[in-house]
Amino acid sequence: MIDKTKSHYEVIVIGAGVAGIYQIKLLADLGVDATVLDAAGDLGGTWYWNRYPGARFDSESYTYGFSFSRELLNEWHWKERFSSQPENLRYLNYVADKFDLRKYMQFNCKVDAMRFDEANDRWRLNIADGRELTCRFVIMAVGLLSIPTPPRFKGMDKFKGRSFHTFYWPHEPVAMAGQKVAVIGTGATGIQVIGEIADKVGDLTVFQRRPNWSAPLNNGPISVAEMADIRSRYDEIFATCSRTPGGFEHEPDRRGFYEVSREERQALWDRLYETPGFAIWLRNFREIFTDEKANAEFSEYIADRIRRRVKNPAVAEKLIPRDHGFGVQRVPMETHYFEAFNRDNVNLVDITETPIVEVTETGLRTTKRAYDFDIIVYATGFDAITGAFRSHRHPGHRRRKVTGLVERWSIDLSRHAGAWVPEFFHALGTAERLRLDELSAWHRDRRQLVHQVTSVHERAWLHPRRTYAGGRTTLGRPC
Ligand code: NAP
Prior knowledge:
By secondary structure, this protein is an alpha/beta fold. The protein has 20 helices and 19 strands. The protein has a domain of 219 residues: FAD/NAD(P)-binding domain, CATH 3.50.50. The strands form five sheets. Strands 1, 2, 3, 4, 5, 6 and 18 form a seven-stranded mixed beta sheet that branches. It has a five-stranded parallel beta sheet with strand order 7-16-8-9-12, with helices on one face. It has a three-stranded antiparallel beta sheet with strand order 13-14-15, with no helix packed on it. The longest helix is centred in the middle third of the chain and has 18 residues. The protein binds NADP nicotinamide-adenine-dinucleotide phosphate.
């Protein structure tokens, strides 16, 4: 068991999510004296927090799991192609227990501040419970999306019903039958929640600022026989994931967009629309990402799909994005999302036309009218990536006089996110366009503590206000 009074470790890992679990496994195997700290009450990171209805992988489950142990691969049965939050959390607990990793973990341990004590060559971490822990190396495994950004509507604290950001969805079941529910936000999270709860609540009102492109997830069970087949192909599956830009098992169609007829393109898209996961995005023609005309033709194809699925033409048009083409941002995958808007109990409010003015004791008010709700769900996203770094106070924020690398850190965290800070590593790197392939490969088979950051990577961060990984949630967005 961990000695909680002990102050010095060789390595402190911050975050007991997917990356943190793998880091401590590697450190334990190397015999390094290390601990993992997490502000949460238990392990799991994103899968500990996001318990909202509909939360599930958009990666194929068997490509998301750890690959470091053949034994683990052989014994774990992914029950669904895109596994849901409870099962994902069960998996992470299973891994921690199987490899006896819990003994290295400390929960309810929020790191409030950390500074590098140059005289003694060690990091000093202030924990919210009053302790100071020291170590030689810090590894940040704090996740991409761990600082939620609830909106700042006037009167939010006055609401007498229940309200929560999806990240903080309660651990106990939330009774929704017969309830009047508002969902604010139609990103990947809102789209999952709406599709899942539309037929379970009394009334659902969706407040949409901008629509997102979305396509069917096409989830389904994985039978024992299918799982046996997947196990026999794990090496091949991981090899495919390693060579694709996104780290998924989907590879682009190598034919040129203009080399095939319009009918052949449509035939491919018809097939992909029915194919599970990101196939519609990543098995597509490569020109979708590089050629505006090609992207426009494909976006129109998806828009037509939306028109075919949503009965009310005015609502359908509201659900079709106009400010970007399909796939230029990470695509939220949906299950019955568009059909939800055909239900009599579901109402779409365009808050670009009638903005939300305030939250009231009984609901909320737009410029047009007041609404009563029992539950308000804020699916309003995250302060992506840099938010988690900003949440720990670092010396550079206060000590303007420090020189060299730490000074560079102090100028603007979002510029380099820790690049070149001594004895400080993080599982995401400051990669160009986030290098999602590396990110997903990180927990797969990398045997390294140091994530190399090149000056090219550092330069990629000189534009701090950008969307992350092509998604919409914003870098450097204040909470
Ligand atoms: P998001 O993509 O940032 O979406 C937030 C939504 O809330 C947007 O529709 C946004 O509208 C809206 N919003 C934000 N502030 C608002 C305000 N003050 N008033 C009204 N509306 C507001 O966040 P997310 O849906 O949580 O997704 C974030 C990322 O998490 C995704 O890109 C994805 O990578 C990941 N994710 C993955 C899965 C999965 O399947 N594995 C599931 C969920 C999330 P605007 O667009 O107009 O800003």
